[in-house]
Amino acid sequence: MTVSIVMSDTIKLGRFEKISRNILLSSSKMLKDAKTELFHDVHGNVLEVGAGVGVNVFFLNKPEVTHWKAIEPDRKLADECKIALSEMGDRATVFDGYLHELDDPPNSYDCIIFTTLLCSVPNPDEIVRDAHRLLKPGGKLYLIEHVGDKPGIRAGIQVIAKVPWKLLTGCNCRNNPISSLSQKGLWEGIEGDVRMIPAPLRVKKFSPMLELLKPFVMTTLTKAS
To answer: I want to staple 199 with a disulfide (CB 3.0 to 4.6 A). Which of 34, 36, 51, 101 is the partner?
Structure first.
């Protein structure tokens, strides 16, 4: 399957927006193997929070997904997302807004996807609780996040770059999602901190910006019944 994302002539991006968009697309290519592994059993009614330009259409345009709702609050990214998702017809829709603005009832979704989301939201604890509320009992939350590296050269650079990187992209390069994901009583079989495994990366060439985001981790969490 080939995914083609074409920008409309009406979508005009500023310089910083172009940088953020390029980082988004490059990181998605790097995470192709991770997403192939993680999303293999995504099915039914699916919600993706922070869908960006819709790059996950490559993984979600399959018969097992009956409907995919992609949430994206950035108007320009949402416009591109609609173009990408158009190949799925009425099996996919884009919600141009924030998760807390969604009026879907509790227990609406079989699967919810966060892809490098918690690094850039103001209240990750609330986002996780909202997702939990919208999942059906036994439903799954699929996550890929980048995290601050362990002590070393990259970690030192992340500390130095944290503030300018946040201003440029809205992202925290020293992200640590564990406490937000580990809120008590949310997930089946989880006592204490959620454990995430290293995400396999497909790296074709060196990129200083992508190096700043490593390492990436992933997990699947099941809503407690």
So the answer is: 34
